[in-house]
């Protein structure tokens, strides 16, 4: 019941927002209330979740097509519940930002955002392959419109590139879904059947690699993150990318243990390449959006290393880092949006010196930046350390690459902090530009407070993401 309610609330909210002929401010406020209601509903569901039990919980199953083994089957494991929690919180902040800036065509915009929220939560809850596929691909519809209608000057090129990459991955995954379901006689993920077919596994793996994105399937990333509305870019980076991690954890590894084990070396090598490559591109990017976009690619590669380390430390670190990165990336993108509204650009050469006379902006950027560069004691440091320890079990070279990625992350994060706050004021920085308003602080401060809370107690996520029985099911 709780899981179904989490799926239905944003979808029903999207329908109501799209139909009711309310003024723009009222429409945005209603959408924000629905998003806050989703947060409250998740908190209630988490309160009823037994994190010591590694089994599926809060589940509901209804047969759709019994002869084909197709069902409406939803529920959460510990790791997927945390991913859903990060989702509802980040979406609340993103929808709140859209309300604060006053997006035009408010009914369509906020209905699409709520529909996207429902699709993402359904993806994290799906325990049937066809339901997973439908929800995984349903995300494409609102993202295409949100970027194509409300994006920047090159939004058409961004949406076309995004759709080409995503549709290619979708077709491969559809073929794999059908092949797996036919050979197993069921599409249920709760059944114990597995497959040793490498090609079916690769269909899923490539689709997940495109969604993340992982090297070398990241070609859609630069334009999409730069041209999307900043809160949509925040959702893409912070949340949509994590559906790929759920796919690997729930489908790729447990349903294809032999292919996952056989190809783990290749995937780890590609993830290491993506970690270094994305970090270098982030360091050289000429604009703030580019830095955060490529840093997201690097962080997704790091999380993938933790997943395919096939070690309890690596898996715990991957989930902790997924949650921490969701809050960090959303915070940074929203802050970039706030800077863009004051300066009209995110070009690094045009910025600088904004710490003077803007204490709230300086404090928030410094706190977010310090957590992003993984200072010791932060949640990101804990996640990266666990991933490094897990990767060591696969070979010390992987740990060396993870350590290099941590160093590079510190470099490009310090570059962002310096570009916004320090050096000489650039041509786009106006002396009369205001400090952060209370409404802006109300959106970003909760994310930072959650990050600080996770920094104090990272075990809240890392030690409850996987029970022993769940690890026995996942690890090949």
Report on the architecture of this protein.
The chain has 476 residues and is mainly alpha-helical. It has a domain of 214 residues. Helices cover 72% and strands 3% of the residues. It is built from 21 helices and two strands. The longest helix is centred in the C-terminal third of the chain and has 32 residues. The protein is globular and about 65 Å long.
Secondary structure elements and their pairing?
Layout lengths: L1 H18 L4 H24 L9 E9 L4 E7 L1 H24 L4 H20 L3 H10 L1 H11 L4 H30 L13 H14 L9 H7 L2 H11 L1 H11 L4 H6 L1 H21 L3 H20 L4 H32 L15 H14 L6 H14 L3 H26 L16 H19 L2 H4 L5 H7 L2
Antiparallel strand pairs: 1-2
Beta-strand residue percentage: under 5%
What is the mean pLDDT?
Answer: 88
State the total count of DSSP E strands: 2
- Give the fraction of residues assigned to helices: over 70%
Describe the global form: globular
Trace the largest sheet across and list its strands. Answer: 1-2
Number of helices: 21
Report a brief summary of the structure:
The chain contains 21 helices and 2 strands. It is mostly helical.
Task: List the defining traits of the structure above.
two-stranded antiparallel sheet
């Amino acid at each position: 019941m709780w899981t179904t309610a989490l799926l239905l609330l944003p979808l029903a909210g999207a329908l109501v927002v799209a139909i009711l002929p309310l003024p723009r401010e009222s429409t945005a406020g209603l959408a924000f209330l629905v998003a806050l209601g989703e947060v409250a509903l998740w908190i209630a569901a988490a309160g009823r979740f037994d994190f010591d039990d590694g089994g599926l919980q809060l589940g509901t199953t209804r047969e759709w097509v019994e002869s084909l083994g197709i069902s409406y089957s939803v529920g959460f494991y510990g790791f997927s519940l945390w991913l859903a929690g990060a989702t509802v919180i980040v979406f609340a902040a993103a929808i709140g930002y859209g309300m604060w800036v006053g997006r035009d065509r408010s009914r369509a915009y906020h209905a699409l955002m709520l529909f996207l929220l429902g699709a993402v939560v359904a993806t994290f809850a799906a325990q049937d392959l066809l339901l997973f596929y439908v929800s995984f691909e349903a995300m494409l519809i609102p993202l295409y419109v949100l970027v194509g209608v409300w994006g920047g000057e090159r939004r058409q090129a961004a949406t076309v590139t995004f759709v080409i990459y995503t549709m290619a991955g979708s077709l491969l995954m559809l073929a794999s879904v059908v092949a797996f379901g036919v050979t197993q006689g069921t599409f249920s993920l709760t059944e114990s059947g597995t497959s040793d077919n490498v090609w079916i596994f690769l269909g899923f793996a490539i689709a997940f690699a495109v969604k993340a994105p992982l090297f070398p399937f990241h070609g859609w990333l630069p334009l999409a993150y730069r041209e999307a509305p900043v809160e949509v870019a925040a959702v893409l980076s912070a949340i949509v990318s994590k559906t790929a991690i759920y796919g690997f954890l729930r489908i790729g590894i447990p349903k294809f243990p032999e292919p996952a084990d056989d190809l783990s070396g290749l995937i780890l090598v590609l993830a290491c390449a993506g970690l270094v490559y994305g970090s270098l591109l982030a360091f050289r990017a000429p604009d703030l959006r580019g830095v955060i976009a490529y840093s997201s690619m690097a962080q997704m590669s790091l999380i993938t290393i933790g997943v395919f380390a096939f070690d309890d430390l690596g898996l715990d670190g991957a989930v902790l880092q997924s949650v921490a990165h969701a809050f960090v990336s959303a915070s940074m993108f929203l802050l970039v949006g706030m800077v863009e509204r004051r300066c009209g650009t995110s070009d690094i050469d045009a910025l600088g010196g904004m710490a003077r006379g803007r204490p709230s902006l300086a404090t928030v950027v410094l706190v977010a930046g310090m957590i992003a560069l993984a200072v010791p004691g932060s949640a990101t440091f804990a996640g990266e350390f666990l991933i490094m320890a897990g990767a060591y079990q696969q070979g010390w070279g992987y740990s060396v690459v993870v350590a290099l990625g941590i160093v590079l992350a510190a470099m490009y994060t310090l570059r962002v902090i310096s570009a916004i706050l320090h050096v000489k004021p650039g041509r786009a920085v106006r002396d009369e530009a205001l400090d952060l308003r209370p409404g802006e602080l109300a959106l970003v401060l909760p994310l930072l407070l959650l990050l600080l809370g996770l920094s104090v107690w990272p075990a809240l996520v890392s030690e409850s993401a996987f029970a022993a029985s769940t690890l026995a099911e996942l690890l090949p």
